[in-house]
């Protein structure tokens, strides 16, 4: 068996003075080096910390209740002097003057406010339903004075079935507004020239803006009876 060749060691190289020096160690082969990371790769970022739990939302600040304040200005004093106990109460609410009057004198007081106090525009006439109250309806007239740039609200209480004096003869705009109030609330205005429904058909049952009214039931019944189809509500 032939002898294996022995590893050849580097021979010393002579320097300029003739002395021999050991050869410099050779670098390790490329195979021995650890592989380099692929170009473009970046070290993985550390894992993100979990988000802190959200703080509970602060409760909204409580709004202070605004209560009506008694009103006794010159206008109220003049009205009390002329109409006496028919002026039941006078208050101011959110800078709005409100005078509650006896229902029977509503038209008379409205006419006086138009002529003597120069509240010559009826901006709106409507009602509010308080079904648990004996006089369940507030009848409300919103008046405006161009001359004084002031607003005045007249209010009267009416029970169900009680007739309210019409102011259509005082303000022509009340003609349609009273019909709408009758249509939606069932309030009858005594002396109105043509009191009938204005938005709903004449055969409609009930008054949709009353708080105890079931609008969906009535709508379903009317559509089925008069159109012969389901309402789809």
What does it look like?
By secondary structure, the chain is an alpha+beta fold. The chain has 2 domains: 69-199, NADH:ubiquinone oxidoreductase Nqo5 subunit (Beta Polymerase, domain 2, 2-Layer Sandwich); 200-233, no CATH class. The chain is 19% helix and 21% strand. The chain is built from 4 helices and 10 strands. The strands form 3 sheets. The protein has a 6-stranded mixed sheet. Strands 1-2 form a two-stranded antiparallel sheet. The chain has a two-stranded parallel ribbon with strand order 9-10.
Topology:
Blueprint lengths: L12 E2 L5 E2 L47 E2 L3 H10 L3 E7 L2 E6 L4 H10 L5 E9 L7 E9 L4 E9 L5 E2 L8 H12 L3 E2 L24 H13 L6
Parallel strand pairs: 5-8, 9-10
Antiparallel strand pairs: 1-2, 3-4, 4-5, 6-7, 7-8
Helicity level: 10-25%
Could you give the count of β-strands?
10
Query: What is the straight-line distance between the termini?
Result: 107 Å
Radius of gyration: 47 Å
Number of domains: 2
Biggest sheet record: 6 strands, mixed
For the record, the CATH architecture of the largest domain stands as 2-Layer Sandwich
Order of helices and strands: EEEHEEHEEEEHEH
- Fraction in beta strands: 15-25%
Low-confidence stretches: none
Per CATH, what is the topology of the largest domain? Beta Polymerase, domain 2
Mean pLDDT: 85
> Based on CA inertia axes, which overall geometry fits?
extended
Structural class: alpha+beta
Lateral arrangement of strands in the main beta sheet: 3-4-5-8-7-6
Q: Which CATH top level class of the largest domain fits? A: Alpha Beta
CATH superfamily of the largest domain: NADH:ubiquinone oxidoreductase Nqo5 subunit
Number of helices in the DSSP assignment = 4
User: What oligomeric state do the depicted chains represent?
Assistant: single chain
């Amino acid at each position: 068996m032939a002898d294996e060749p022995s590893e050849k060691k580097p021979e010393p190289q002579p320097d300029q003075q003739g002395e021999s020096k050991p050869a410099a160690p050779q670098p390790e082969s490329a195979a021995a080096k650890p592989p380099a990371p692929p170009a473009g790769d970046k070290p993985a970022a550390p894992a993100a910390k979990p988000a802190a739990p959200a703080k509970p939302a602060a409760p909204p600040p409580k709004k202070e209740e605004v209560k009506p304040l008694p009103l006794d200005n010159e206008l109220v004093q003049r009205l009390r002097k002329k109409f006496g106990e028919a002026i039941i109460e006078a208050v101011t609410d959110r800078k709005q003057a409100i005078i509650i009057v006896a229902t029977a004198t509503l038209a008379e007081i409205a006419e006086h406010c138009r002529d003597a106090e120069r509240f010559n525009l009826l901006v709106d006439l409507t009602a509010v339903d308080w079904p648990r109250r004996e006089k369940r309806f507030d009848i409300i007239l919103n008046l405006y004075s161009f001359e004084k740039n002031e607003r005045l609200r007249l209010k009267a209480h009416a029970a169900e079935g009680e007739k309210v004096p019409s102011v259509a003869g005082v303000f022509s705009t009340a003609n349609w507004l009273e019909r709408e109030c009758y249509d939606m609330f069932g309030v009858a205005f005594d002396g109105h020239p043509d009191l009938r429904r204005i938005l709903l058909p004449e055969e409609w049952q009930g008054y949709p803006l009353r708080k105890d009214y079931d609008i969906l039931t009535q709508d379903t019944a009317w559509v089925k009876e008069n159109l012969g189809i389901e309402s789809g509500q």
